């Protein structure tokens, strides 16, 4: 990439989602959480510029990543008590351990994720 060149945000967005799971129903979300021990759920809306800026920063290769478009899966707001986007949920064994939304401080988030990840590895390993 050229110095000073900003890639098309839609290209970055598509690249990130292609290597992860797009969850398009509440049933898919629940199945995803059941199947994977450690999950990061990212809830966003296509018209949210902050959501587009955050997605490339959420790269944790050993954590299963699922994306939910809040416009398509409106029931997610009620199920997970989400009132704003973007919202990041980190779950282990279907229990929420971390919630970050709207204004994410990545230094704090990384520290929290590292702690939960180490605990998961000690507990029984990642599926």
List keywords for this structure.
globular; 39% helix; 127 residues; five-stranded mixed beta sheet; disordered N terminus; alpha/beta; Glutaredoxin
Q: How is this structure best summarized?
A:
It is built from five helices and five strands. With 127 residues, the chain is of the alpha/beta class. The chain has a single domain (9-123), classed as 3-Layer(aba) Sandwich (Glutaredoxin), CATH 3.40.30.10.
Provide the β-strand percentage band: 15-25%
Distance between the termini: 35 Å
Low-confidence stretches: 1-9
Helices and strands, in order, run as HEHEHEHEEH
Please give the CATH class.
Alpha Beta
Going by helix content, strand content and strand pairing, the class is alpha/beta
* Shape verdict: globular
Give the radius of gyration: 15 Å
Total count of domains: 1
Strand order of the largest sheet: 1-3-2-4-5
Range of helix content: 25-40%
